[in-house]
Write a sequence for this structure.
């Protein structure tokens, strides 16, 4: 029996949800929270009903809680409200969406660290993904490192972090945007420009999501994210029907590995080199975003263009 509560978030993709649910079935959690969004159309109801039905076959001793919406709330509201609902009942949880397939060791990894850091307020997030498989300089002897960036394809957190600090409407962003706290936390100008661009779009409601607001919430607290040195979760949702990952990219369908135990614990300090790689490779800050910034200045502020180009080298 696995004692850490699991929140399973589903919608309309029975095929991917089945693969994740089979991993949950193997671990046999004693508490399972199932969060489901409602259909967008009458035709979609068949798909949402089938996806919900696959979670009915629970053949182990388990307290099951279901939060099914009859209307479509969208990614932002449904995920956030579902996590809120779960944390009204428990003080910690592992959260899996219907397209994030974990290695079985992911569950033990999260459980041990949820307990270890339960009173460490600055540690706000435990993720299951690691995108450094192609990073030749990635050589960390410990089982995980600390990052300034929260990755949300299979993760865990505490009620004390989510319920107290989550800012679903990007509250305080105009002030934080200008603050020394933001500048000190993300000291690289190019990286800070990237997050400013992303947070601006989210604040303008141009993106329907919950996780950008969670990343922002962590940053406002100088919150730390735990990243495993092995990739423990793969996203298989890059297909038609996906909300944000509807086509393959370099971050989806990554191979998963098994974590070694006992865990080797690092000091509580940010690995700046690993974060630099994440920004430049995973988010493409030095490629796509850099080109956007340079193009913007070249077309609108040609006098400043050369200076900006020099700063970005």
């Amino acid at each position: 029996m696995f004692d850490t509560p699991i929140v399973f978030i589903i919608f309309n993709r029975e095929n991917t949800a089945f693969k994740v649910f089979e991993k949950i079935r193997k671990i046999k959690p004693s508490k399972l929270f199932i969060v489901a969004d409602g259909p967008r159309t009458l035709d979609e109801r068949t798909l949402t009903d089938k996806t919900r039905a696959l979670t009915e076959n629970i053949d182990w001793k388990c307290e099951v809680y279901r939060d099914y919406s009859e209307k479509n709330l969208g990614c932002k509201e449904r995920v956030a409200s579902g996590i809120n609902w779960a944390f009204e009942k428990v003080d910690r949880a592992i959260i899996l969406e219907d397209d994030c397939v974990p290695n079985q060791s992911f569950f033990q990894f999260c459980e041990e660290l949820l307990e270890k850091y339960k009173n460490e307020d600055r540690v706000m997030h435990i993720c299951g993904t690691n995108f450094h498989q192609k990073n030749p300089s990635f050589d960390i002897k410990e089982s995980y490192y600390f990052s300034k960036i929260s990755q949300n394809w299979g993760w865990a957190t505490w009620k004390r972090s989510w319920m107290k600090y989550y800012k679903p409407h990007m509250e305080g962003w105009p002030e934080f945007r200008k603050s020394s706290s933001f500048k000190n936390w993300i000291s690289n100008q190019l990286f800070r420009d990237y997050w400013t661009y992303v947070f601006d779009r989210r604040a303008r409601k141009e993106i329907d999501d919950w996780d950008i607001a969670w990343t922002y919430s962590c940053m406002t607290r100088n919150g730390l994210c735990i990243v495993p040195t092995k990739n423990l979760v793969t996203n298989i949702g890059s297909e038609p029907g996906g909300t944000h990952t509807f086509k393959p990219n370099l971050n989806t369908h990554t191979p998963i590995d098994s974590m070694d135990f006992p865990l080797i614990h690092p000091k509580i300090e940010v690995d700046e080199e690993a974060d630099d790689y994440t920004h430049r490779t995973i988010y493409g800050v030095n490629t796509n975003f850099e080109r956007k910034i340079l193009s913007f200045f070249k077309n609108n502020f040609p006098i400043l263009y050369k200076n900006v180009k020099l700063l970005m080298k």
About this structure: DSSP finds twelve helices and ten strands in the chain.
